[in-house]
């Protein structure tokens, strides 16, 4: 007599009470493969960068308004604060005041245009990703040096604005050799504004290159 070999059932079939049933096992489960998500460029959460750029633009706008107010008050005859005629600032001081204000305005405009350009680029790239509207595939070096350049423009604008205010004090209160008031005003301006600029430069360098 010949022996009958037991039938072999495939691995994806099971026998329950004499009834074969096929198990729902996908080929992907039988042969698992690991896939790594592909990334293009450098992905950054850019909402904080947009907020920082908005802050730079707002500060630049405030200082630009102060510059135009200074333009309207640079006439020596209209602004003497009761000091003698011998203490009036020379015409060269008024000319320097106007030059410093123009240079300061140029730096503020430079800083604002860079900030607006980076912000426009971020917003356009954010619009390409519907799943995460606050993430843009933007080059980190472009973002880093762009923010730092915009901050440097603001710092230079503040420095020339401070120099223009020094000349403005001499036009309104008299030259430094004619009283203590101009000296006190200039010392206060240089100490507080200079300290703030130093802190701002240090923070900008740390945020741009070490964070």
Question: What layout of secondary structure does this protein have?
Answer:
Blueprint: E1 13-16, E2 19-22, H1 27-30, E3 43-45, H2 47-71, H3 76-79, H4 91-126, E4 135-137, H5 140-173, H6 180-209
Antiparallel strand pairs: 1-2, 3-4
Helix pairs in contact: 2-4, 2-5, 4-5, 5-6
3D structure, described in words:
This protein is mainly alpha-helical and 211 residues long. It has one domain. Helix content is 63%, strand content 7%. The protein is built from 6 helices and 4 strands; from the N terminus they run E-E-H-E-H-H-H-E-H-H. The protein has a two-stranded antiparallel sheet with strand order 1-2. Strands 3-4 form a two-stranded antiparallel sheet. Helix 2 runs parallel beside helix 5. The radius of gyration is 34 Å and the shape is elongated. The protein starts with 12 loop residues before the first strand and ends with a helix. The N terminus is likely disordered. Keywords: Membrane, Transmembrane, Transmembrane helix.
How is this structure best summarized?
The protein is mostly helical.
Mean pLDDT: 74
| Quaternary organisation | single chain
> Any idea what the shape is?
elongated
Level of helix content? Answer: 55-70%
Q: Roughly how many Å apart are the termini?
A: 84 Å
Number of domains: 1
Order of strands side by side in the largest beta sheet?
1-2
How would you classify the helix and strand content by structural class?
A: mainly alpha
What's the number of helices? Answer: 6
Give the helices and strands as they follow along the chain. EEHEHHHEHH
Largest sheet: 2 strands, antiparallel
Weakly predicted, low-confidence segments: 1-7, 11-16, 18-23, 25-43
Radius of gyration: 34 Å
């Amino acid at each position: 007599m010949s022996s009958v070999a037991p039938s072999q059932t495939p691995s994806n079939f099971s026998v329950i009470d004499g009834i074969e049933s096929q198990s729902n096992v996908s080929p992907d489960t039988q042969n698992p493969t690991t896939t790594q998500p592909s990334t293009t460029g450098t992905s950054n959460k850019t909402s904080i960068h947009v907020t920082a750029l908005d802050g730079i633009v707002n500060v630049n706008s405030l200082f630009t308004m102060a510059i135009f107010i200074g333009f309207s008050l640079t006439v020596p005859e209209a602004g003497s604060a009761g000091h003698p005629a011998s203490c009036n600032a020379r015409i060269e001081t008024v000319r320097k005041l106007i030059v410093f204000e123009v240079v300061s305005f140029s730096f503020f405009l430079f800083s604002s245009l860079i900030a607006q350009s980076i912000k426009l680029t971020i917003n356009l790239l954010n619009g390409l990703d519907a799943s995460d509207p606050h993430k843009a595939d933007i080059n980190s070096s472009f973002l880093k040096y762009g923010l730092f350049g915009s901050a440097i423009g603001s710092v230079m604008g503040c420095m020339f604005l401070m120099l223009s205010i020094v000349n403005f004090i001499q036009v309104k209160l008299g030259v430094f050799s004619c009283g203590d008031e101009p000296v006190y005003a200039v010392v206060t301006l240089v100490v507080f504004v200079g300290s703030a600029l130093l802190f701002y430069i240090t923070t900008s360098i740390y945020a741009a290159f070490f964070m």
